[in-house]
Amino acid sequence: MEELTEELATIQQEKSVISLGQALQAMQACRESMNSLQEYVIQNNFSNQSEEINFFKLIKPKFYSLLIFYHRLYNIEVSRPIGSEDDIKIYLQNQLNQIRHFFEENKFWYQYHRAGETYLDEKLFLRNRSQSPLSFRIYDINAHPSFSTGFEYIFSRIIANELLAGYIQKSLLSGQNSKQELNFISSQPQPLTWTDPKSALIELAYALKSKGSFNNGKATLKEITDYLQQVFEIQLTNPTRDFQEILRRKTGYSNFLDSLRESYLKYIDQLENKDHR
Fold this sequence. Notes:
Tet_reg_excision_RteC; 277 residues; 2 domains; Tetracycline regulation of excision, RteC; single chain
């Protein structure tokens, strides 16, 4: 994902305003990344169901949504009317209305995505499951069966439409008739991968809950763990059970938090020693 983000940023930086040619370049970059991802998944097996769910729920939609986004962006810009500011405003408002209609039509999936729900994950994000009429309705017919569960397509469209809505709203606010700047792609922070053990993230989640660090202490543990899973693209199958295992540890309940504090203080000492030189 990092390589694709850098490539898209390079394409955009060629000009301050994205052109149709740049949109085509971006689509090609996304397609190549998707092809590489597909080849890897087809040739390699997931180690367990949790890893497979994590891929189709969180990782693939990151790539797929950008491909859908740039494709829709190209179509919107190529059809943008050349006329008065009012004509352009009406056109863009109609595009926004189409996006709102999409979210209304797919309200259940949108809420499942936004809330970070997990209770249907095994039905939605594992391959070779029996198909329901609903899954056929949203299935991407062009997808390779080994590279799709069917449902990651709708979640990719949701993410793409969120990006597209932001682009259109910025265009409306700018009041410009030219192509809108697309700075938010390159200004997006690059995704970070959690490389410590999952148990460390569980410790952190419980610590943040205990401290009341989110929503003035009103955020539930589930909301916190769901949020951390989305941010770090990691699947925590059963945080409550994992926490019980932490409590049974003979080495202590706060190994990660203790090491975090130790590393932080060591960093401060290094800064102070550097300043005193």
